[in-house]
Amino acid sequence: MVPIPRKPGVLLSAALFFSVSFFSGAEAFLVEPQQYSLDMPMGWVPVEILEDRATFAGPEDCAYLQVKAFPGDAFSDPARISSWASEKLKAAGDELPFVYSGYPAVFRDLIFSSGGFSFQGYGVCIDGDDWDYFISSFTTEDLYNQLHPFMVSSLDSFALGGEDRLLPGPVSQFYAGSYGEESLESGYIDFEGRIIPFSYDRYALEASRVVIEREAQVLSAYTQSRSEEAWERYYRILYRDNHARLQGLHVALEGLPGLAGTGKRDAAETLLRWVQSFEFQRPGHLSDLYSPLETAVLRSGDCDSRGLLYTILLEKRGIDAVLMVSTRYAHSMVAVDVEGPGARFPYGNKAYLVAETSDQVDLGMIAADMADPEGWIGLDLGSDAFLYE
Q1: Domain 184-387, CATH
Q2: What is the block-wise mean pLDDT of the chain (389 residues), using blocks of 10 residues?
Q3: pTM for this predicted structure
Q4: CA 8: distance to chain centroid?
Q5: What are phi and psi of 217, to 5 degrees?
Q6: What CATH class is the domain 10-174?
Q7: What sign has the CA pseudo-torsion 190, 191, 196, 202?
Q8: What is the DSSP string of 164-192?
């Protein structure tokens, strides 16, 4: 990537901002005392840490992400945060209101100059409870189109903390809301011969498609030396983006025979049979992957999309599950923490039972030519552990 020319201190002092203390693992950061987190593209690092704000830069200073935190009573609404940013940066750009995780928010363009350079990007303004936020991601005007997926991905990785880390990011929530009011589509689930009504938000489905293609663009930029870390982040972003959007499906399945009032092993087997019954299909775009939500709607998908769907549905039932991925075997499966016989995959301090989602075999069965545990890596997508590694 082409570096942004920068005189020491000019951009950061003139443009903004911040942080306090943080834990980091790869390019994931937990910032205290606000407890917000960021799960940014590979190579993004902190470049300035101050009391109430943090600045992060992409490789070779190609782009920036900045977070400014204010006491919760500093602004009465997000439009005033946006006005503050316009005044502080002398920035122009359109803005639109939306709701982020229940809080009033504004998504806006950012066009401004600093230190002799012209910058372009986006900002998110959040009027929270204890803290208000202005989060921005930007690059020089000449690199805007090239780095657009990386800027938006970094911005979308922001999470307020706690349960917000299992809700879609601010850009994804803005996408879904920008199409209009929630639009529920009525469909059905053929679940082992039972036809179950199932409603989903078609705008959320469209937003999940946008996120997958954007993240595929980000993923494609990394060399082999960083590919494993980049793949891990890719799956984390997709897991987060779809977790809450599958709640309606989880509720629709909750009372069905084989799931209601059964043990964890029986529930895992029932869900596995259902996912295995899907048609094997890929969309053929850059990502070549359906989102977990679209996989459920279409009852189609490959091993990755089915594995993500299965993992989320298990986690929603309180069943610990790990996504297993392998570059050696060009395949993915799921590992499930349930009792019973079968092949197991060691991860952490547990031995998980393997689950093949794209072939109709029993829980615990794995092809002999893929049975070497050294050929797999495990991803605990529902955990915050990546923030503390």
Answers
A1: 3.10.620
A2: 33 37 56 88 88 90 95 96 97 97 97 94 97 97 97 97 92 91 79 88 94 95 75 94 94 87 92 96 89 93 97 96 94 96 94 96 95 94 65
A3: 0.90
A4: 33
A5: -65, -45
A6: alpha beta
A7: negative
A8: GGGS--HHHHHHHHHT-S--EEEEEEEET
